[in-house]
Amino acid sequence: MGAGRAVLLVLGLAVDIVALGGAPRPATAAPPTLRELAAARGIRIGAAISSAATLGDPTYAQVLSSEFDIAVSENQMKWGLIHPAPATYDYVDPDAQVAFAQAHGMAFRGHNLAWHNQNPAWLLAGPFTRDERIQQLRDHIHTVVGHYAGQLSEWDVVNEAFDGLADPAHDPWSSQIGFPDYLDVAFTAAHEADPSAKLFYNDYLIEAPGPRFDQVLALVAGLKARGVPIHGVGFQAHQGARPCDASCANDALTNMLRLHALGLEVAITELDVAVQLPATPAKLDEQASVYRALLQACLLAPNCHTFVMWGFTDTYSWIPALRPGYGAALPFDEQYQPKPAYAAMADTLANPPGPPSCAAYRTQPEAQAAFASGILGAPLLDPDGNGVACESLPVPTTVPVPSVVPAFTG
Ligand code: G3I
Helix (H, G, I), strand (E, B), or coil: what is residue 85? Predict the structure, then answer.
């Protein structure tokens, strides 16, 4: 115990030690919340709500509503819960979640309308003809999206289509309507039911270039080419803790810009970063570097306006139950204390990254296309801070804008 503190105890005074100096201590302003910082950067930052019951926990509700300005139902809008019987729709829990968001000035994403998982038993029974499947899908989407018309800013219309393609026993859509035809049906019905909602295709492990992303790019390029009303791609971003540097951000940014070239938005929709338990300070720092990199990419991309985590407190994460041995994946711990991931996101929002370097401009087609179209702020002057403007460097005579990818043919 320090001497100053001992004196106070002896005197029995309920005053702060600083006040003994005479001048009143200025009230310390609370640091800005993530939602305040994100709003200043023109993006929404959010979290999945794990159930309606959790909203009854005052701490959960307070942190959710003060730190985030967009929410999503982790499970409650999926077929199995919202449409448990052919003629039964259950809106009790999702309505409570949407009402909470509205009461706190938060936007809301819908998740999801067609998936191979968490479907009700009645939907998987049959037999149903192809026409009946199309009617089921259209009726469900018209009903659910119609119920929330004008209230939800975004919908994940189709989730993980390639997994569904590989799992016909649980995916009535690809197996009976056909792939990618059912996506055309689903997006069209969603747009009919709520023309104001932005409609997303949502998938995982697409935060870095590779064959999985190429497959998704081909799929959504096909949708665009056919005039299907799709507005964006959701990057789920279920990641693992690892040391991330600028290359992680550049990877994600590259994919975001490739979608921008197709006229599509991107959203980070389900970010969490699993740690192999037990979590240590070093692992949590690595985890923070992943959160930072993905947020940097979103801030740099002109087409990323939504950054959502799959929960916010480790108390209610899906990971320990479904990935034994892993957890601690979210930015608040089980006592709602902010972790290094929280500090990394706050710092990134307060000190956003600059545009890609001149080196990227000269070597990466996506960066060249972005500079050329002015979306990263033309004219770009001296982004490397070395007195050299990109414009004075050798530039490609033709700017290779990523081409539209042909429709996926299976
Ligand atoms: O509701 C029942 C409960 O009645 C029962 O007692 C309990 C026993 O296990 O299970 C409960 O259902 C669980 C449900 O979550 C609600 O908690 C299911 O077993 C469990 O499988 C289900 O897991 C969800 C998972 O999707 C299903 O695939 C997770 O909560 C949810 O976070 C997860 O979310 C998905 C996204 O929708 C799509 N992207 C991947 C992401 C993570 O897997």
Answer: strand
